[in-house]
Design a protein that fits this description.
mainly alpha; 14 helices; signal; hydrogen peroxide; two-stranded antiparallel sheet; glycoprotein
């Protein structure tokens, strides 16, 4: 049975304007495929409903795929390309080894190729799938301007250098976000995506064992929560075990992530870092009250629109890949 979102949100005029603002130059637009593939969003949504109905835990990974794409070379679907004999691609970079959802993207792209051959880019497919993943996890809907083209270059080295690390502090994360024209508010808002999904032990184990010469565990991590994590993550080398990034709610898009962070129970050092800056701490504590879910949903929509416009290829740039994992 198709998964239905129980959250209905009215899209304010400001959000629609944001989706189209500053995009005249970039040539992205709402309804870009209205004449060439008018059913594009319906096809993506229908297939996504089937995918998430069968595997609800894929909402987080599909959202993460979009994040990891946009932070390297912009939102050009370069994260989807396979490595070749002479090139190690983004998806094989160390920070991307745990990415999932590639086959789901291929599945949606195949449906679109059948309906509208050589028309819809993989970059647009991934952007729409990320939005629909959030909606199907009971999160907000936002309009997606389309017209992205697919990149032809994918570099594991660039991915390792440019992706925000799980151990990042506020100065480092702010610098990385600023390089993508994203600000401090976008940083704290987009961190809320950690309400969905799971993480492998190596991404946070160094907070539990041999943290520093002075502390065996990260002192910014709640000690009870650290003890609980150790029962799941037995060592720094435990690559099999998964932990929920938003315990008890990792398949639902909500604000409980911020309540965990406010209690010093964020899984990553980058989560804990949000409490070290006055601006991000105030936002975390405000959303953690549970009284401003609508504010967070609106903020998240706006920040996702901004991120989805990072470094896009348009017009005659790039190409429209027939298959997302290989250039034409």
């Amino acid at each position: 049975m198709a998964v239905k979102s129980c959250v209905v949100m009215l899209i304010p005029l400001a959000l629609l304007l944001l989706a189209g603002s500053s995009l005249a130059v970039a040539q992205l637009e709402i309804g870009y495929y209205s004449k060439t593939c008018p059913s594009v969003e319906a096809i993506v949504r229908e297939e996504m409903e089937k995918i998430i109905s069968a595997a609800p835990s894929l909402t987080g990974p599909l959202l993460r795929l979009h994040f990891h794409d946009c932070f390297v070379r912009g939102c050009d679907a370069s994260v989807l390309l396979n490595s070749t004999e002479g090139n190690l691609a983004e998806r094989d970079a160390k920070p991307n080894k745990s990415l999932r959802g590639f086959s789901s993207v291929d599945r949606v792209k195949a449906k679109l190729e059948a309906a509208c051959p050589n028309t819809v880019s993989c970059a647009d497919v991934l952007t729409l799938m990320a939005r629909d993943a959030v909606v199907l996890a009971k999160g907000p809907f936002w309009p997606v301007a389309l017209g992205r083209r697919d990149g032809k270059v994918s570099s594991a080295v660039e991915a390792a250098d440019q992706l925000p690390p799980a151990f990042g502090d506020i100065p480092l994360l702010t610098k990385i976000f600023a390089s993508k024209n994203l600000d401090l508010k976008d940083l704290v808002v987009l961190s809320g995506a950690h309400t969905l999904g799971t993480a492998h032990c190596p991404s946070y184990a160094d907070r539990l064992y041999n943290f520093s010469s002075a502390y065996s565990a990260d002192p910014s991590l709640d000690s009870e929560y650290a003890d609980r994590l150790r029962t799941r993550c037995k060592s720094l080398d435990d690559k099999a075990m998964l932990s929920e990034m938003d315990p008890g709610s990792y398949k639902t898009f909500d604000t409980s992530y911020y309540r965990h962070v406010a209690k010093r129970r964020g899984l990553f050092q980058s989560d804990a870092a949000l409490l070290t800056d006055a601006t991000t701490r105030e936002y975390v504590q405000r959303i953690a009250t549970g009284k401003f879910d609508d504010v967070f949903f609106k903020d998240f929509s706006e920040s996702m629109i901004k991120m989805g416009n990072v470094g896009v290829l348009t017009g005659a740039e790039g190409e429209i890949r027939k298959k997302c994992y290989i250039v034409n």
